Amino acid sequence: MSEDAVLSLQSHSTTVDYRGKVPVEHLDYDYIEKCKDVRYLEKILRTLRSGEEGIYPHLIKFCESHLEKLDPKSRALRKEMPVATAASLSKDEWSQIEDELKRWQEETKKTETTLKHQSVFDDLVKENMPPVRGSSCFVPLSQKTVPQERKKPSKCALPRDYREWDKFDVEKECEKIEEDVDKTDPPAIINSGHPKIKTQVDTSLLSQQEKLFLANREKDKGNEAFRAKDYEEAVTYYSRSLSIITTVAAYNNRAQAEIKLEHWHNALKDCLSVLELEPGNLKALLRRAVVYNHMGNFHMATEDLRTVLREEPQNTTATQLMSQMEKKMEECQQEKQRKGKKILIQEIEEADNQTDSDNKAHKTACLVQPSQPVGGEERSATPVERGDMGNAHKKPHGRGDGGPHAESNSSHHEHRKNRGSSDKYKVPQEKIANGSSKRGSTASVQGDQSGSGKATPVGGNAGETVNLDAPCGALPPPLARLKNEGNLLFKNGQFADALEKYSQAIQGYTDSGIDSPEDLCILYSNRAACYLKDGNSQDCIQDCTRALELQPFSLKPLLRRAMAYESLERYRKAYVDYKTVLQIDVSVQAAHDSVNRITRLLIEQDGPEWREKLPEIPLVPLSAQQHRREEPPSAEVLQARAEKAARDAERKAEVRFSALKQEGNDFVKKSQYQDALGKYTECLKLKPEECTIYTNRALCYLKLERFAEAKQDCDAALKLEPTNKKAFYRRAMANKGLKDYLACSSDLQEVLQQDPNVQEAEKELEEVTKLLRQSLASTSPNKPRKTVPITEVEDDENVTAVPNSKNSCKGEDISINLQPASAYEFGQSLNAARSSGNTVACAELLASTAPEMLPQFLSTQLDGHTISFIMQALHSHLLEKDPYLVYQHLNHLHTADRFSVVLMLLEKEERHHMTQLFEDLSAVQSTQFTKNDVQNLANKYI
Amino acid sequence: MSSPLSKPQIITHIQKSLNYTVFDSKWIPCSAKFVCLGNFPSGTGVIQIYEVNQGEAQLIKEVEKPKAIKCGTFGATSLQQRHIATGDFDGNLNIWNLETPDVPVYAVKAHKEIVNSIDGVGGLGIGDGAPEIVTGSRDGTVKVWDPRQKDSPVANMEPMEGETKRDCWTVAFGHAFNDQDRCVCAGYDNGDIKLFDLRNMSLRWETNIKNGVCCVEFDRKDINMNKLVATSLEGKFHVFDMRTQHPTKGFASVSEKAHKSTIWQVRHLPQNRDIFMTTGGAGNLHLWKYEYPAQRCKKDSDCVDVGVAGSVNLLQNVTLSTQPIASLDWSPDKQGLCVCSGFDQSVRVLIVTKLNIV
Questions:
Q1: A575 in a domain, yes or no?
Q2: Are A73 and B313 in contact (CB < 8 Å)?
Q3: Domain named RNA-polymerase II-associated protein 3-like C-terminal: which ranges (chain A) (predicted)?
Q4: Residues of chain A positioned with their CB less than 8 A from the CB of B81
């Protein structure tokens, strides 16, 4: 058949008559292949199958497969199939099924016998059984009533008799019409509102067996409702199941349903119940993370997710959630910055420390770069971040290859926790990136290690702008391109595609016969990363081994192989690899963590002699054994060496500098300002251009009330960094101390101009303006008021950073309003008392508050610490004086909003306090309440 | 597209030929035993109990009864008692204690003619409220019985005088999610489906599917009614979404023509209400899954809620024999295990695999 003929047929086929017979020409491979009309194809298939035009088994098959491609659900494809037998399954499958059956048979036999034994109680009539329905109710088979009603109006359509007009009642007629309208259009009955289902099941008369059976049934019903997206119903059924027997599964499922309904507190409760029954239940942890995430408690959420990922690194849900949360957290942080909380100022100060050293490393990295033609642009695209706010995100050095275990690295870095975990998903980007650019260079390694922390905003952009044709080592351009494409795909998370690219590159490499083991090693190593991501640990190990054959003791392949071994639970080999990694570079945190983890596992597994069972750990030659960041640039020339020497000296200075600074900071925290002052001064000797040190020293001077020096330091800081908010603020304080209110207010205004959300600054400004006015008005300045607020604010800074240092608090002269009239005032007073740890004040406050009002007052700010603080106050001051008041307070406290949730969040010690209080309370003899009352009350708390 | 091996497979585990016509087969709850009901060629009825043991069905007990037995149910008995209620060709409703099956524990002349169908609720923890049995008969009536009340039904659904009585082929309980609400659905030979509300003692809904209704079943008896499947004589079945009842349009439905012959029965998987098996007149079984639509309810042009039907997917189909498969029963205890009997005088225990992953 010619081309044209086929085409004409095709166009014809669109108007084909489905009822007519299929022309013989259409029973043709070409025609069938080109036919897109499912219905017509079905018809062709039917004709073919009927054998009217002869039997063509191959053509039939071809037609079927084509049809399946177009419409997999086509009815014509349904074939009569014989029933399967044991023989049609694989042996394993069948034996599994058989075993299951056998087990079931045995189990049911047992349950049956127990059921029979219980049948003695047969005669027990269920008391709660509803009575027999009214005897022999008659239900008509057809809805006669409806048509009758409809007939009536047709009669009324006749013209009315004149006599009737006299009796005509307009209103009645109107009502009738309205009624008719109502009747003809009753509302739809929707069976989804179901308040009538009981959430409790009466199980008083059931045996254990029956309960189990019932609980399972109810749970199944819940599952089904869940699948049908009927979450409320699902919750009801799960609750029913739980009311019969409490099971982990039902709690877990109910938590999920509650999440869908966005009942966060209920979901949280359920998760907690699961974790109580089965600590470490992954599903529950994951769900709790979701709940925390929605409740805005990102720290707890990340912690949970991290636990999940530690157990199950491949868990995609957790991974997704993690990245989602990372985004949110970033937003949050930005918001926080805008709000300018007190905490932030302190935090930045500490972060500065890190930043500077990071920046240093970065600068040196950039310096070396010109001599590195390979893949440098990726890193140079990550600009050195300078401003102080953003640096809070920065991550400590020495991250190395994070991989799936990276999350455990950061757990030590207290306030950076959240970042650390989010980094986990960024690390692979860098991994590959530096895999291509490394080529034994110091600088790039250093660069990417310091850069890996801030990958989020910058690294991503850099990745997208990667030039695909960038040269890669000794690789010819087509291979280099393949590799770069692979890198890009990897970064985008398309691991399978990246894998293919790398495989092609490797193939091309062997075909081209180039001799560049480094490049091949990198290719293998990168492909191994893909395998690892895909969970294909076997192949990952293979590739890593190949890479290591080419380049013994290269870090990345070793680390990847270790991870692959670990995921295969071959802990000994993993241990050896991690140990080797650590020999090469001790600073790889992931390796440290893994070694610790594996050691624990091996001890569990092999007992105390676990070391003897280990394969030999290879001794890493000295040439390969170094701190990665100090690794000498093998390809470098003299210039780099000289630079390195300079850098070493610089680094030493830096180490000393940061040590000094740290000591200084520590002293500040301990309120030993004089000592801190000394340290900072030494710091400045080493590095006179350090802005933060000036501001920190200014703080010390302020504390020591040496305002003039403080002002000088602030001036110095501002010279270095003309927009340093903190310097302005402290200079303002210094000026205030020096009674130079005008300068003070202008400094404060400067602060507020930079960041209008700094609340202290606003407060100060108000006060200073007042003072300014006073000083202008009268010659005698108002002395006693001014020093106190300064210390107060500074103290607050300290307290937020170091919550434990209560000793530095000087809040005695904070006036506490002991007669609160509103929740706001109460909250203010309570907070004031709490921040100063003043339980006496709190006790007085409580004594003057009506117990009935307590929940109302508390509702807005109920948290664990408040509760425990109140408990303390009650215990230490009120219990002796007025036990009844304590009882009444406790009696009302638990009715506060969110009380039960908060209760769950109490720490052990706080709980202990509580029990102590109740014990003491029950020991009190009183006429107003009995021991039993106290006991009942205690049950609500503990 | 899933590979053929990832689909559920229907496997014959046991096949047992019998020397009588078997009409119904039912698993005894909480056991590995099932009951077969039928009639001997001589016209007398028979109850047989088999136990599944090591790939074989062992006959444990056999009782002969004077009248051929058409149908049976365990729906209204407690797990401890496990009494079976049967309907026979003579219109009798009997409840038997299978331990001592010689005399019925309850007996009533329920109908004038053969009891075509029977269903129970309120027992086995399925559905709150009183245990009740519903029977449908050729005499055109549908009656609800309470085993605690002798001789007379607690509800009687029969045609008014002058109305032609239709042969009731099938009955089913549903909507028993608390101890008051309860519905009975009945299917008739003329294609009528009627839904009776036992709480209000009224006809709640009726429709006609044009062909005789062979079997109706709710996906679950003990929930707020969710779905109803009705199978018909000419090989079609209809799935009604029972959640939203439109004042005029009633319930939304989707229909599927699967078998080229009568669909004798439909049974929902006890562990997953969205999976059900239909049995055909040509000896074939079809396993289906119902997929819910994105929105189960929408507003029509008058802003009245109207239901939206989903779709059904064929999961697997097999041909067991050339004769109709008249009954099928899923094991309530073991997911995927079912017993079916056909007019080829044999009973089969089938295993359906991979039901938990579809």
A1: yes
A2: yes
A3: 819-911
A4: 119, 122
* Residues A745 and A866 occupy one common structural domain: no
B63 close to A (CB below 8 A): no
The answer to whether A190 contacts B220, with C-beta atoms less than 8 Å apart, is: no
- In angstroms, the CA A718 to CA A726 distance is 9
A840 pLDDT higher than 90:
no
Look at residue A346 in the predicted model and tell me its pLDDT: 40
Q: B93 to chain A nearest CA, in Å?
A: 16
Q: Are residues A492 and A573 in the same domain?
A: yes
ipTM for this model: 0.81
Residue A224 with chain B: CB contacts under 8 Å:
220, 272-274
Where among A313, A333, A353 does a domain terminate? A333
When scoring B27, B51, B168, B223 by the number of chain A Cβ atoms within 10 A, the one with the most, hence best to mutate, is B223
pTM, rounded to two decimals: 0.51
pLDDT for res B5: 55
Average pLDDT of the residues of chain B:
88
Show Cβ contacts of residue B274 under 8 Å, excluding neighbours closer than 6 positions: A224, A227, A228, B219, B227, B289, B290, B291, B292
Cβ-based contacts of B179 with chain A (< 8 Å): 130
Q: How far apart are CA A595 and CA A617, in angstroms?
A: 13
- The dihedral through the CA atoms of A84, A86, A87, A90 has a sign that is positive
Indicate the pLDDT class of residue A142, thresholds 50, 70 and 90.
Answer: low
Q: Domain containing B114 — which CATH number?
A: 2.130.10.10
Backbone angles phi, psi at A856, to 5 degrees: -65, -45
User: Which residue segment(s) compose the domain that A601 sits in?
Assistant: 477-618
- Domain co-membership, A767 together with A649: yes
Work out how many domains chain A is built from and give that number: 5
Q: Give pLDDT tens digits for A362-373.
A: 443 333 333 333
What is the tally of structural domains in chain B?
1
For chain B, what percent of residues have pLDDT higher than 90?
A: 44
Amino acid at B314: L
Q: What pLDDT is recorded for position A8?
A: 43
Least CB–CB distance from B273: residue in A68, A191, A224: A224
CATH at residue A540: 1.25.40.10
Q: Give the mean model confidence (pLDDT) for residues A836-850.
A: 77
Residue B322 forms contact with A (CB below 8 Å):
no
Q: What does the alpha-carbon distance between residue A430 and residue A401 come to, in Å, rounded to a whole number?
A: 9
* Separation CA A152–CA A79 (nearest Å): 56
Residues A595 and A646 in one domain: no
In a domain, B7, yes or no: no
A840 shares its domain with A907: yes
Contacts of A127 in chain B (CB under 8 A): none
- Name the closest residue on chain B to residue A106, using Cα atoms: B32
* Cβ separation B201–A141 shorter than 8 A: no
How far apart (Å, rounded) are the C-alpha atoms in residues A434 and A441? 10
Tell me whether residue A431 is in a domain: no
Mark which of A317, A333, A349 sits at the end of a domain: A333
**Chosen from A73, A83, A111, A114 to mutate, greatest number of chain B CBs within 10 A:** A83
C-alpha separations of B340 from B16, B37, B124, B284 in Å: 11, 12, 21, 11
B319 closest CB neighbour out of A81, A186, A224: A81
Residues A486 and A613 in one domain: yes
The pLDDT assigned to A145 comes to 41
Residues of chain A with pLDDT > 70: what percent? Answer: 64
- The whole-number average pLDDT for the span A562-591 is 81
Range of the domain at B181: 13-353
Q: How far apart are CA A448 and CA A454, in angstroms?
A: 10
pLDDT band at A187 (very low <50, low <70, confident <90, very high): low
The mean-pLDDT minimum among A173-187, A310-324, A828-842, B5-19 falls in: A173-187
Nearest chain A CA: its distance from B21 CA (Å): 22
Please list the helix, strand and coil fractions of chain B in percent, rounded to the nearest 5, in that order. 0, 55, 45
Does residue B274 lie in a domain region?
yes
CA distance A9 to A110: 70
Q: What is the pLDDT of residues B227-275, one digit of tens each?
A: 999 999 988 899 998 888 888 888 889 988 877 888 999 999 988 888 9
CB contact under 8 A, B157 and A187: no
Q: Looking at the structure, do residues A589 and A668 belong to the same domain, yes or no?
A: no
Q: Which of A68, A185, A213 sits opposite B247 (nearest CB)?
A: A185
Q: Tell me: pLDDT of A907 over 90.
A: no
The interface residues of chain A toward chain B in range 70-99, judged by CB-CB distance below 8 A, are: 72-73, 78, 80-86, 88-89, 93, 97-98
Inside any domain, residue A670: yes
Residue A4 lies in a domain: no
